[in-house]
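G., before I forget:
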Amino acid sequence: MEKIRILMVCLGNICRSPLAQGIMEHKAKLVGLDIFVDSAGTANYHSGEHPHTSSIRVARENGIDISGQQARQFLPGDLNKFDLIYAMDSDNFENIHRITGTNQSVQKVRLFLDESYPGEGMNVPDPWYGNYDGYLKVFDLIAANCDTIITKIKDKSLFA
Ligand code: 4NP
């Protein structure tokens, strides 16, 4: 089987999506799942920067090193380079459709937390304006959803 390619997308690509990338890579490795994961931001404010220090810290406290990641902007061509494109929130879900010129019928573009909470429109809150507590909550939310995605990959229901 071809390696599944997953892109995690937020606004700046320095807080949420680098965590989603790092956590997904880490968990996939733990269960011996060979997938490719990347992340991007729909804005270019932070292109080239490493993840936010609080994202690096919460990941490190959980045994995951995301310090080597570098922010990049989401590009229209990403639509064809990935099997799944996960938006961390509904604003960025809309941004992805705007940038790629697609609409909600494109099954590969999904709201990330829809995998655990289908149809509830749940967002991963943006921790950028808050304190470290927000990063702890975001870590847990993302980690639990990565477990859901891995379970769906294993039981082959992710693309059903
Ligand atoms: P992210 O968080 O989308 O999770 O990376 C943000 C990072 C930076 C900004 C907003 C959100 N900003 O406005 O610079």
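The first strand starts at residue 5 and ends at 10. The chain has one domain: 4-154.

More on Monday.
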